[in-house]
Specification:
single chain; 166 residues; mainly alpha; two-stranded antiparallel ribbon; 8 helices; 49% helix; 7% strand; globular
Amino acid sequence: MIIKYAKLFSRLRTDKGRDRYPASTLYWAPHKPFLLLSVMDLIAEGQITKNFIEPSYELVDTFNGYWSAVMPVGSKTSMAYPFPRLQTDGFWHLIPKPGYEIKYTDGFRSMIRLREICAGARVDEELFALLVRPETREQLRMVLIGTYFAPEIRPVLIKQCMVNVV
């Protein structure tokens, strides 16, 4: 089962462009990898204990920590970008709040709007089982780090994980 998710993690649908993303991210948009790393950190820390990923302040802070550690000073983003877009990768499933329907084309631009419409997300049950086990979680973490980040930045990401998981 881990092979399936390692392959999916190594093939995330991400934007690519030398004019938009630095060499440290191999010119890939780092949003989805940062979000997945953040979810893994909150699972390791015991803040996420069931298969429900809330767009919480803790998740945003963890995501922003990765962003600040890797991206150039002054670059800005929002976790509202990757949170709904991960559903296109086949293992992330959005849970709308009652009375709302979420479409990929909704394109959330702020956490306020995301939280207004989206209660959270869940991942495939098989993936969640892998993420709660430290050894398989770390294998998947290394797939993300090894696929989307330059060798010289990988130690920075591993250090950021250690900062996040206290």
